[in-house]
Amino acid sequence: MSLPLVISELFGPVVSDAVLVKYFHVASVALAVYDYLLMLPVEIRYIWKDQQTFSWKQALYLLTRYLCFVDVSILSAFLFDAELSPNSCGILYRTAAWFEFSGIIVAEVILLLRTHAIWQGSRTILYIIISLSSVAIPGAVVMYLDMSTLKFPVSPIPTIVPCISSGEKSILYIDYALVLGVEFVVIALTICIGLKQWKEQLNPMATVLYRDAFTFSSILFATSIANVTVLAGTSSIALHLLLLEPQRVLHSVLTSRIILHLRIASDDTPEEVETLSTFNAT
Asked: What span, in angstroms and rounded, lies between the C-alpha atoms of 212 and 230?
């Protein structure tokens, strides 16, 4: 039996899974770059040319927008650099994973603050938000435990799969189940306040808040369901990466748009910004 045939039989599933992950990764990178270029004029006008004092709201925008490109770049090296050593594979994977974790936390904070805004600064909603934010602690513990079980042996086919991981069954789905829970609460709170105020004549600022709240949260919720399903349902370690980066990029794209859309709306109705929203991104 020829060597290529042996490799095909032994590593065929690994190769097919790795190639599929690469396709999804490239699509995610394309989406991140496309949206960045599309929204760059708006970002320059409302973020970089803002003459006011630099605020934590602008900081959240910069974090949710630009952290994405850090972990995307690191994961690109992990997936495509055939010269990587097993040790380098481990370093890149863990670094990318922690950047992704941090980026999703930032995105969830923006979603929660936006939810607080559409509830007009309700103290009860504030307590709910603080409680939901605490899931980052068990999330970090799960991430650490999952990373500690991974090993990266020498890849026999580095030109196709530079890094091959092995280890115990991943528990990373728990992290994304926590994200799923947070996004479910966000959608529920959005629907509740929307039904309560649907008869009112909403101004542009409030319309943007409600529209983005429901649409973007629903997209992220659906993506989280898909990701949890893949992570919990597959035994292929390679496939664990399938939807991690797409979900990360969507969190970056949609939450950065939330802030930019609010800036555009607040520019049209400046007198209403402070009364309508505690998160106007100025």
From this structure: 27
Contact at 8 Å (CB) between 158 and 84?
yes
Which tens digit of pLDDT belongs to each residue from 254-280?
999 988 888 877 765 444 334 334 444
273 and 281 Cβ atoms separated by less than 8 Å:
no
**C-alpha closest to that of 244 among 136, 86, 38, 98:** 98
Q: With respect to residue 2, please indicate whether it lies within any of the assigned structural domains.
A: no
Q: Confirm whether 5 is domain-assigned.
A: no
| 7 located within any domain | no
Residue 65: name the closest of 33, 88, 98, 21 by CA.
33
Whichever domain contains 42, its CATH number is 1.20.1070
Say if residues 279 and 116 touch (Cβ distance below 8 Å): yes
Is the pLDDT at 281 greater than 90, yes or no?
no
Query: Encoding tokens for residue 169?
Result: 């069954």
The answer to whether the beta carbons of residues 170 and 238 sit under 8 Å apart is no
Q: Whole-prediction pTM value?
A: 0.86
